[in-house]
């Protein structure tokens, strides 16, 4: 009638209960570890992507070589900025760049000249001075030199610059890097046909 439980049976039941708790803890730890590993992998890939984009914004800049202006009487009606890659910069396609012109008459945004863009808004032209390959708008070598040309016609483009006036251009490349160049027209243009700005 009475059932007696021996010490060995009690130990067996306690051992099975402990085993079940242990297995449950291992499963929870494994799931938590999987979530942490996935999250760490995701964060690592995001941080690498962000780091590469930030690096491009800092390094894919242009460097000014020289800026000159064409003189028409007492004003500059054409500005030519010669640029190259900044040290450490990668490939820079000038056809994808936008330029903010900040001058005495106000601010304008210029895009690379194509037939469609030239008829609808302010534009700039480019030409190769020294080019290591056949691509006419891409700086992809430290020896490449390109002219960025501004026709100051006061119709769709900025106004001509008078004596003593200054302007600032901000060249924004496709990677998000910005190069700022400031130049000033000499106080007296005299009988000159061209000046360095």
Automatic annotation (TrEMBL):
Q: Which UniProt keywords apply?
A: Archaeal flagellum, Membrane, Transmembrane, Transmembrane helix
Sorted alphabetically, which InterPro entries does this protein's record hold?
Answer: Flagellin/pilin_N_arc, Flagellin_arc-type
Instruction: Kindly list the places in or outside the cell where this protein is found, as annotated in its UniProt entry.
Output: Archaeal flagellum
Q: Does the record carry Coiled coil as a key word? A: no
Q: Which residues cross the membrane?
A: 12-37
Task: Give any Gene Ontology cellular component.
Answer: archaeal-type flagellum
Sorted alphabetically, which Pfam families does this protein's record hold? Flagellin_arch-type
Q: Which family does it belong to?
A: Belongs to the archaeal flagellin family.
Q: What does this protein do?
A: Flagellin is the subunit protein which polymerizes to form the filaments of archaeal flagella.
Against NCBIfam families, the record matches this protein to: arch_flag_Nterm
What is the protein named?
Flagellin
């Amino acid at each position: 009638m009475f059932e007696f439980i021996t010490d060995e049976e009690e130990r067996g039941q306690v051992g099975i209960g402990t085993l079940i708790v242990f297995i449950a803890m291992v499963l929870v730890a494994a799931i938590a570890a999987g979530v942490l590993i996935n999250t760490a992998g995701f964060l690592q890939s995001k941080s690498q992507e962000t780091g590469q984009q930030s690096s491009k914004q800092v390094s894919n800049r242009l460097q000014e070589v020289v800026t000159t202006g064409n003189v028409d009487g007492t004003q500059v009606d054409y500005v030519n900025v010669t640029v190259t890659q900044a040290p450490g910069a990668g490939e820079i396609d000038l056809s994808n760049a936008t330029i903010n012109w900040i001058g005495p008459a106000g601010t304008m945004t210029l895009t690379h000249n194509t037939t469609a863009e030239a008829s609808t808004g302010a534009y700039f032209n480019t030409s190769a001075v020294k080019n290591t390959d056949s691509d006419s708008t891409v700086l992809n070598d430290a020896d490449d030199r390109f002219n960025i040309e501004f026709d100051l016609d006061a119709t769709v483009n900025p106004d001509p610059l008078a004596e003593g006036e200054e302007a600032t251009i901000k060249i924004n490349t496709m990677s998000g890097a910005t190069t700022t160049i400031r130049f000033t027209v000499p106080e007296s243009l005299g009988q000159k046909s061209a000046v360095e700005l």
